[in-house]
Amino acid sequence: xxxxxxxxxLKTLLFLISFLFFFHCKKTDSNTGEESVSPNIQxxxxxxxIVIDSLRGDIIGRYGVTPNLDLFQKNAVHxxxxxxxxxxxxxxxxxxxxxxxxxxxxxxxxxxxxxxxEVEAFYRxxxxxxxxxxxxxxxxxxxxxxxxxxxxxFGLGVDVGxxxxxxxxxxxxxxxxxxxxxxEVLEExxxxxxxxxxxxxxxxxxxxxxPPQGFTNRxxxxxxxxxxxxxxxxxxAFVDEELGLVFxxxxxxxxxxxxxxxxxxxxxxxxxxxxAISPFTGTNTYYGHGQDLFLENIHVPLLVKLPGxxxxxxxxxxxxxxxxxxxxxxxxxxxxPKLVQGKSLKPLIENQETTKRTYYGETRFTQxxxxxxxxxxxxxxxxxxxxxxxxxxxxxxxxxxxDTKKDPNQINPLRISNISDLKDMKLSPTLEKKILRFWKxxxxxxxxxxxxxxxxxxxxxxxxxxxxxxxxxxxMANLPDDVVLEEKGKSVQIHTNTTxxxxxxLEVYPDVSFPEFTVWxxxxxxxxxxxxxGYFGLSMASCNSNxxxxxxxxxxxxxxxxxxxxYFWKEGGQKKSYTSxxxxxxxxxxxxxxxxxxx
Length: 599
What we know:
- Keywords: Signal.
- This is Type I phosphodiesterase/nucleotide pyrophosphatase.
- With about 600 residues, the protein is an alpha+beta fold.
- Among the domains are: about 45-355, Alkaline Phosphatase, subunit A; about 450-545 and about 560-570, Immunoglobulin-like.
- It has 13 helices and 25 strands.
- The strands form 4 sheets. Strands 1, 2, 3, 4, 5, 6, 7, 8 and 9 form a 9-stranded mixed beta sheet that branches. A 6-stranded mixed beta sheet has the order 17-20-15-25-23-24, with no helix packed on it. It has a 5-stranded antiparallel beta sheet with strand order 10-11-12-13-14, with helices on one face.
- The longest helix is centred in the first third of the chain and has 31 residues, at about 1-30.
- It starts with a helix and ends with a helix.
C-alpha cells in the first residue's frame, strides 16, 4: 500500500510538472507571437525618419563636424550613392511620403504657393500617404521640425496626415526648439505600447547659414573655404550635436533597439562655381538648390539602422528617395501599394538584388535620367504652368550628357540642342545609342500628356483647319501624309485636297491651355452645331462655358456619327487647373524669408 501511495504521489507530481511546463511554453509562445496588446502591433518596429535639410552627400566624415553621424554611420547601413528624385523641399518630401515621382502628385513643383484646386486634388488622389498608412496600422505618428510644406495652413503645402504635427518654420533659432520638442515627444512615446512613426526634420544647414558661435571652429580640413561654406559646415556641426542628444535620449528611453532609423536629406546644395547660374532656369543658384539635377543637388546621405539588428555595411549601388517609402513598409511587415514607384531597399541590404536601379528626377525646368555614373539632363517645360516662374512661352529644350567617372563635378557636359541632331554630332555609335535610349527613358517615365483628336469628313477638295492655344505650344502626334502643315507659333494651319475621311491628333505642350480650332470646307466655316464631341457625340453648341468634361472620351474611342462632318474628343484626362495668380500671404512670406527661399 505504501509503495502504491508513493507511486500516486509521483504520478501527481509529474502531472503538475508537465502542466507547469506546458503553461510556461504557452506563455512563452504568446510572447513570441505578434503581441499581447493587440494583433500586429507590439512586435512591429518603431520608425524614426530624420531629415537634415540641404545636407550634401559628401559632408559626413569629411570635415570633422559630424562626430555623432560618423559614429552612427559606422554602426549602420551606409548607402554611398543615394539620390533624391526632386531637388527642393516640398516635392522631395512628397516623394518621401508617397513613394512616387513628383509629377505623379498633383502639387506643383515650380512655384511656392499651392492652389486650392491642387491641394484638393492631392487629398482625392493620395488617400494614404505614409503617415496615414502607418496610422491605419496602429502607429502613433508625429512630425517635429521645420517644414512648412507639411501643413495646408499657409498656402504652401498639404496635410499628409500626422496625428501630431509640431512645425517650427515660423520660429527663429528653431534647431534647439525642435530638439526640446523631440524630447517631449519621446517622453510621451515611451509610456505607450503601440509603435510610433516620428518624422524629425531639421532645417539647418539650409541657408541663410547662421551657426551659433564656436561651431565653425570645429571644422578640420585643408580645403580653402569661403565664408558661406564655413558657415554651412558650422550649421552642420550644430545639427550633429543636437542629433547626438536625440540619440542619447532614445537609448535612455529604451527606444533605440527596436527602432528603424533613417537619416537622409531632402536635397543637396550647389557649391561649385560652374553651376552658379543654372543652365536650365538661368537663376543664380550658388549656395542654393532646386534649379537643376546635377549630382551636388541630388546626392545626399542615407544611413539606416535596422531594428533589432547590428548589421553594418556600406553599399555603393545607386538608390533613390522613392525607395524609402516601400522600405519603411517592408521592415514594418506591411504590404507595399501597387502604385508605389519606388522599390524596397531590403533586397539590396540582404544581398538579394538582381537588377541595378536607375534614376529619374524632376525639378524646375529640368528632367533627368541616369544609369550608374551617366546622366542625361533635359531643359524641360513639361510640368510647368502659367504663374510666377513661367508666362506660357516655350523655348528651346536642350540636353546635357555627363559621365561622372570622367567628369566628377559635371562641369564639361556634352550639349545636345535637339535629339534629332545626334546623328550629325559624329559621336561614337555606342554613345549615340546610349543617349537616345536615355532620352526614350525620360519620355517613358513622365506621365503622358492628353491627346486631342479631330476626325474630318471633307465635303470638298479644299479643307482648311486652324488650331490655336493661348499658352504652350501644339505638338502634332498624328497627321496624314496628304496634308500640308504650317506652324505659326501658338497656332498651326492645316490644308488638304483629299475627299477621304481623315484624322489628326495633337498634344498641348505643356498641358496648360485648351486648343481652339476652326474648320473650313471650300472657305465656308463649319458651325458648332455641326461639330460633335466627346464619348456621347454631343454638339459643341450645347455648351458655352466650362465645357472640358463635354469633350472627354476617356480611354475609349467614341463611335463617330455617320453624319458628323467634324468630330472632336479628348483622350487622357482633364487638364490641370493650376494658374497661380495668388500672392503669398504675410505669414507664408515670412516663413520663406526665414528659411532662405525668398531673399
